[in-house]
Amino acid sequence: MPCRLLGLCKYETNKLVRIQSVRLGSLKWILNGTILLVICIMLLWNKEYQQFDLVVSSVTTKVKGVARMHLPGVGDVVWDGVDYSGPAQDKNSFFVVTNVIVTKNQKQGNCPEVPLKGRLCRTDKDCKKGDWDQLSHGIQTGSCVKFDVLKKTCEVSAWCPVETKTNPPRPALLAAAENFTVLIKNNIRFPAFNYIRRNILPEMNGAYLKSCKRENDSLCPIFKLGDIVREAGEKFSEMAIEGGVIGIQIKWDCNLDRLMRRCLPRYSFRRLDEKESNRTLYPGLNFRYAKYNMVNGVEERTLYKAFGIRFDVMVFGHAGKFSFIQLIIYIGSTLSYYALTTVLLDWLIETSCYSAEVGQNYSEKKVESVQDKQKCILCVSYVDENNIRLVKRSQKKSLQDVKPMLVQPRKEDTGHLRAVLSLLQPDNGVDHDAEPPDAPKPDLNDRPSRPAWCKCDRCSPSSLPQEQLCCRRSDGACITTSPLFERLVLSRSLLEAVLLYRDPLCPLADRGQTADLRHCAYTQYISWRFGVPPEDTHPAVPSCCVRRIREKYPSPDGQYGGFMPARTASMQACANGEL
Ligand code: ZN
Ligand code: ZN
Prior knowledge:
By secondary structure, the chain is α+β, with helices and mostly antiparallel strands. The protein folds into 4 domains: 15-49 and 324-366, no CATH class; 56-105 and 167-319, atp-gated p2x4 ion channel fold, CATH 2.60.490; 114-161, no CATH class; 377-575, no CATH class. 26% of the residues lie in helices and 25% in strands. It contains 16 helices and 18 strands. It has helices at 2-5, 22-45, 81-84, 206-211, 225-231, 236-242, 324-334, 339-350, 356-366, 414-423, 483-490, 492-502, 508-511, 514-530, 543-552, 572-575; strands spanning 50-54, 56-64, 67-71, 75-79, 93-112, 139-146, 152-160, 181-190, 195-198, 222-224, 244-255, 265-271, 286-295, 298-322, 377-381, 388-392, 406-408, 538-539. The longest helix is centred in the N-terminal third of the chain and has 24 residues, at 22-45. It is elongated, with a radius of gyration of 51 Å. The model is unreliable at 428-444 and 565-579 (pLDDT under 50). The structure holds zinc ion (2 copies).
């Protein structure tokens, strides 16, 4: 069935561990409640339930004001908006002239160049016909002429006379521009919501616009230039000399939800160019333009070098409106925060801050260790220790000396215990045990010399490190000398009963095979000493016990394949020369 092959017929879910505890339960609800509160605050504070759209806008401006000023070489003039706005306006910005250098009545002709950076000449040889560079006002004619009484400069073919002043006049000629006003018209649109608005609000009428002032009404769309510059942290009279750039920021932060509809502009100002004019090269802002006229059929021009302030209007903003989809997405994204409760409580339990007892119990119930197939973990039990040690098999160190990875309490195999105890009843006839005739009697005098790792004096020497294991940690009597060893591990009638218990219809001849009895004796020893061995570990039988069991149930040819519990048979790592 394809459904079965693809695994579509199953559903897997997580297994949970429930700890019955008032303290942990209330802690969980307190933490979950706190998280819920934070989520709700974030939801309302950041308007996470809204869909957002960015502003699209257009800006137009109109500067108004007149000022009288004295132009050197020209006299008193009155300038209005047309004069001081400069020749052209950029998109979303306007320019106001605040200072000017005027060169009147320029005509095409030859005249001396300005002695810029000491460019003087003495004879015609110093000047080269047709020469020019970036600082030149015209093309050299090749003659050296008088500039003034003291200096001589190269003659140029240019608009004559050439502009001689380089530094702007101080104070600024048009410092009165401070009192000029500008009307900013800003139309915005939020395309996603098809919402249109102006900064001149519907409730503003002509009378309001004539009287409104920035100082007492932050929504007034008419600004005095002096106020703008002051709010940007600058002094108008200083900035007017060399010019500069000021940014006018209009921020729209709109809430288009029906109940809380609010969409008003907020104005702020700051200087955009480098302020420290004496530390910067080419400070301020200036450009040249000319006005042309014909005098007696000859074209003349008036050259203006205009210094001024450019105001750039920048519009930012976004609008939000309730969106069910956004709300669902937000709620979905916050669900993971509840995992913090689990992380915190798990940490609390495991760090024994809470209770060491519960921690151990909880870890056992919650964590199931699975060993990698290639790893072979042995478990070792000593008769003079209550715990079971888990050790990694080593190829070099004797098993007796390997340091334990973990020490665990022994888990009683109650089923086995009950069965063994019932089999040990006197009427089961343990005393009728008959030694097989061919079993050699253990001869204590014939014992080989005691290996260094043996503490019980009854182990056989072995060259394999995994076989070098004694029944005890410290010197003392061997477990094989215990009367219970005889009855629980070696007793033929008990072993036969166990074999029969496993296979009730097994013929007596098969039951009595010494190999089966020997292997059964090993399992008896393991169940006795280890109870239920920890998961994925392999119990190791001490050398003295192996020796005693082999003495009792010897292999006819003296060859032993090594004992392998059924569940370890597949494990290559343990299969070779184990026990
Ligand atoms: Zn020993
Ligand atoms: Zn021993």
